[in-house]
Q: What sequence folds into this?
């Protein structure tokens, strides 16, 4: 349990910092883009956000696959004995 406690503070610090930065950067850009609709800036911001959203999907899907094939079988080994567990690499 001490391992979790020692790593939770830096994790929370990173989470709070990233949320604050995304709000402080994203909201003014969104407001400016909404005021100046159909400008080059608006098209650029929209393009960058769509590219970012498209890249987030495979990343999230990869995390779900890691969860499904490595973490969940270990956690559910007693409740679901027929679940296939892969040996560690």
A:
């Amino acid at each position: 349990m001490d391992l979790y406690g020692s790593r939770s503070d830096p994790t929370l610090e990173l989470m709070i910092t990233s949320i604050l930065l995304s709000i402080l950067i994203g909201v003014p850009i969104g407001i400016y883009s909404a005021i100046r609709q159909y400008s080059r800036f608006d098209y650029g911001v929209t393009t960058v956000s769509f590219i970012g959203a498209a890249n987030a999907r495979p990343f999230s899907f990869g995390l779900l696959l890691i969860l499904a094939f490595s973490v969940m079988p270990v956690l559910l080994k007693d409740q679901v004995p027929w679940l296939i567990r892969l040996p560690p690499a």
Summary: The chain has a mean pLDDT of 85. DSSP finds two helices and no strands in the chain. The CA atoms of residues 66 and 72 lie 9 Å apart.
